[in-house]
Amino acid sequence: MKSKVLKIALATAFLTGAAPAFANLIYKTGTQTTGTGLGAVSTVVTVQDNGQGNGPKQNGTESGCVTYVPGQPASTPAETCATETDLGVGMAPEGGDNTAGNAGNNTYFLNVLNTIAGLTSAGQLGFVVNINEQQDGVATLTKLYMSLYNTSSGDTHYYQYMGDPLDLADFGGTGQSGLNLFVLDNAQATDAAGFCPILSECVVGGGIEFAKGTTVGDAETVYVGAFKRTPGNPGGEIPEPGSLALLGVGAMAFGAMRRRLNAKK
User: pTM for the whole thing?
Assistant: First the structure.
């Protein structure tokens, strides 16, 4: 099996001369959960290109994006990707492999995510990438971005993964996911919260791309959720949603207390 590799190389896009001001989605290992298949979570993008009749391009590079269309329902977005002007040279997915129809391809007003996922601030936003590869459970992520469109100002902010190609493994299948989590870093979480203070005025979309030849199974999906944050953490992120994360923090604190007590004995 391929090994997971992550190097945060922020300078890469800025050296191109066309990088955006807002950049960083940080990879975190999350927690596998059930009931996270299509229709059960807020799926943003569903892509498939395995040379077996799925994906209009069928060029071996699986890629797709959704963009909010002003004045239209969020559930019927355009299947188009942000450009290099938006994301930086070489950073824009090529798109074209969204699954047929509108199944699993959506944008969402953030107040809807408040109801579904408990989102209270745009700074809590994160993407879960679910890998559904039958041959080895691994696909190589090369590009990922989140877009926030403010319907009041008409502006869009972009947040993207900036690291090296990343081998993502997930053997849970479409109905179980959560291992591969991408969250906003501290600075971008602050920016997102300031850019979208009124949840009902902002729409989230995004796009993804995998390296050529690394996807030969079923469809990969990206869904959006709300993830708790702790300012004391490096990067400020907790990878698990809700109470599971708090239990983990509590366990670490309890362990540290026990070590101090044992040291005094």
Answer: 0.79
